[in-house]
Amino acid sequence: MSGKSFLIKTFGCQMNDRDSEIMAQLLGEVGYVETSVTDQADLIILNTCSIRAKAEQKVMSLLGVLRKHKKKKPGLKICVAGCVAQQEGDRIIKKMPHVDLVVGTQNIYQLTDLLKDHEANSVATSLVADYVIPAFIPDFTKGKENKVLPVLFRKFLTIMQGCNNYCSYCVVPHTRGREVSRKVSHIIEEAHALVEAGIKEITLLGQNVNSYGQTNSVSDIKDKVTFAGLLREVAAIPGLKRLRFTTSNPKDLSDELMCCFAEVENLSPHFHLPVQSGSNKVLSAMHRKYTRELYLEKINTLRSYCPEIAITTDVIVGFPGENAEDFEETMSLLEEVHFHGSYSFKYSDRPGTRSADFSDKIDEKTKSERLQRFQSRQDEISLEQNKSYVDKVFPVMIEKNEGDSKVGRTGTNHLVHFADLDNSINPGDIVQARIVHAGQHSLQGKLHITNKDEI
Ligand code: SAH
Ligand code: SF4
Ligand code: F3S
Questions:
Q1: Where does ligand 2 bind, in terms of residues with CB under 6 Å?
Q2: Which ligand is nearest to the CA of 176?
């Protein structure tokens, strides 16, 4: 296989980002080299997302473009991986015979074997409840030339796969399967390997990290290990400057985990806690299993443990049956919590989900109006909160150079631009920065004191 080149285009969440890295490493191990030029690629992988209809349509239209491309380059192999691959399986090949390989979410580790044995139109989308995520140590030496592995100080670490929650709108339990946790020993080994390779910040990934180790019938976890316990173990790895995690379902958010924000020094003060709606009626129809009141209680507890914590969320507007009053409850929740930021979406029917069959669907115009109202108020609140940071000092981890300036990130996950940093400060270094200006989406900072070792 050596001498061939590949290109991976990744859609969707951080899980897919991490899976793309794994595929890139596997391809690097058998001699493939990454290219960013479509015309040069012998293998193109689309690592896809199916969370909303739009995400899926994007993939389908790109596959249409690739059909023409393959006509000009018949040797080109096209592979569809990720959540659309899992959801559609061989229907992809039936609709699009120019696709060579469909690789499901539990099959990525077989990628290179599948390519080797590949005849034509292969589909590997087995999804089993007792899936064991293999131990996989990132090897930056093999993947060095590969652009999928570029940032060498900030990495994702997948701790679990799948979800058992079956929120009524969500395709993830169908595309990622039943929830399985990775072994603690594999996670710790991978985290050590990352830190030894110079990684300064790790983000632990799972669809609902709070239930880590709880529902797993297949792992070798002997004693019950909670997510908070795992987090403390990873945080204790010497040299790890920052630790983050995503995502949490509020219903499973334990006091033990919230307490970590007071006690674990290198845990970044940012919590992404998707609320989805402020209306108890809608939350119940979504099958989220918490109430607005419980959500607010968790926010208060989090803020009591860590007053400076930044809280962000996800919101769906126009869920079936959401009336004007329900939507106002989402708006009032936004006022009450004052989220630092949020991702908000128009409800979208997904195949196999329960809400796809609900009546009382909301029309597109109403959904767009609600989204617009939510987003503009969120923008005002974000700006207001960003402005409250002016003249305060924060530790900022430098991420990259942008022209003559440098960009970094606070523990609260705010981007900070610097015009005055000299070249002795490198990506991965933490500097103390005074915020001098606040915009809608980013802050401007000036160096306060330079102390690279400080958190
Ligand atoms: N595991 C996370 C969510 C992962 S999906 C959690 O439980 O919170 C990311 C976000 O996509 C969700 O939080 C939700 O806001 C949005 N989303 C999921 N399904 C959707 C759908 N059918 N329509 C619109 N937005 C959706
Ligand atoms: Fe989807 Fe709900 Fe699972 Fe999140 S918790 S992945 S929204 S089913
Ligand atoms: Fe999308 Fe699958 Fe992630 S549906 S959001 S890529 S788990």
A1: 163, 165-167, 170, 172-173, 207-208, 249
A2: 3
Q: How many angstroms does the Cα of residue 182 sit away from the middle of ligand 1?
A: 23
Burial profile 305-334: b = 16 or more Cβ within 10 angstroms, e = fewer: bbeebbbbbebbbbbbbbeeebbebbbebb
46, 62 Cβ separation under 8 angstroms: yes
Per CATH, 150-268 and 301-388 having the same topology is answered yes
Q: Is the CB of 51 under 6 A from ligand 3?
A: yes
> Is the separation of the CB atoms in 106 and 126 below 8 Å?
yes
Torsion of CA 371, 376, 382, 388, to 10 degrees: -160
Burial class (CB in 10 A: 0-12, 13-18, 19+), 449: exposed
Atom of ligand 1 nearest to the CA of 163: 1
Ligand 3 pocket: which of 46, 49, 84, 103 to mutate (most atoms within 8 A of CB): 49
| Per-residue tens of pLDDT for the chain, all 455 residues | 458 999 999 999 999 999 999 999 899 889 899 998 999 999 999 999 999 999 999 999 999 999 999 999 988 999 999 999 999 999 999 999 999 999 999 999 999 999 887 656 788 998 888 888 888 877 766 555 555 555 568 899 999 999 999 999 999 999 999 999 998 888 999 999 999 988 999 999 999 999 998 876 434 555 668 899 999 999 999 999 999 999 999 999 999 999 999 999 999 999 999 999 999 999 999 999 999 999 999 999 999 999 999 999 999 999 999 999 999 999 999 999 999 999 999 999 999 999 999 999 999 999 999 999 999 999 999 999 999 999 999 999 998 888 778 999 999 999 999 987 887 888 889 999 999 999 988 899 999 865 555 44
Smallest CA separation from ligand 3 atom 1, residue: 49
The ranges assigned to domains in the chain are 5-124, 150-268, 301-388, 393-449
**How many angstroms is it from 211 CA to the middle of ligand 3?**
18
CATH node for 5-124: 3.40.50.12160
- Strands (E) located in 353-429: 393-402, 405-410, 415-418
User: Are the CB atoms for 342 and 312 separated by under 8 Å?
Assistant: yes
- Topology of domain 301-388 in CATH is Transcription Regulator spoIIAA (3.30.750)
Ligand 1 pocket test, candidate residues 345, 362, 374, most atoms within 8 A of CB: 345
| Cα maximum dimension of the chain | 63
**CATH number of the structural domain 150-268:** 3.30.750.210
CATH number of 393-449: 2.40.50.500
